[in-house]
Amino acid sequence: QVQLVESGGGLVQAGGSLRLSCAASGRTFSSHIMGWFRQAPGKEREFVALINWSGSSTYYRNSVKGRFTISRDNAKNTVYLQMSSLKPEDTAVYYCAAGRSGFQTQVTKYDYWGQGTQVTVSS
User: Fold this and answer.
1) Are the CB atoms for 12 and 122 separated by under 8 Å?
2) Which of 6, 23, 30, 55 is the S-S candidate for 117 at Cβ 3.0 to 4.6 Å?
3) Sequential DSSP letters for 66-116
4) The pLDDT of residue 47
5) Mind listing the pLDDT tens digit for each residue in 60-85?
6) What mean pLDDT is predicted for residues 18-26?
7) Are β-strands 112-113 and 92-99 bridged in parallel, bridged antiparallel, or unpaired?
8) What are phi and psi of 80, to 5 degrees?
9) DSSP assignment letter at 9
10) Average pLDDT of every residue of the chain
């Protein structure tokens, strides 16, 4: 069982930066793939970034490549999403998720979800 709690969201101007954190409880955190997803109003939840158990492999959706960086600290049971050069279209509720189905981008492949944190980017 893994419980996830996101933090770090907020209101930022376009071009600004935010760092999201996801604190996990549970002894099996280090064995899970961790992902960040987002959901804008009226839209489906979409994949943003994911990282493997050791942190040696990452994958991003095209629209955030070069702007977002995912990382994890297994000693602290925490995964991060550093977001830079933010755009209004990045506005959404951001969720972290944990799964064991491999390097997957589909929402359905993740077993545990946090409650989400709002990110709003003003133009």
Assistant:
1) yes
2) 6
3) TTEEEEEETTTTEEEEEE-S--GGG-EEEEEEEESSSS---GGG--EE---
4) 97
5) 999 999 999 999 999 999 999 999 99
6) 94
7) antiparallel
8) -125, 155
9) -
10) 95
Q: Which two tokens stand for residue 17?
A: 């930066």
Q: What is the DSSP letter of 65?
A: T
The answer to whether 95 and 7 are in contact (CB under 8 A) is no
3-state secondary structure at position 44: coil
Single out the residue of 90, 112, 75, 77 nearest to residue 18, CA to CA.
Answer: 90
Cβ atoms 36, 94 nearer than 8 A: yes
Contact (CB, 8 A) for 81 and 93: no
The amino acid at 58: T
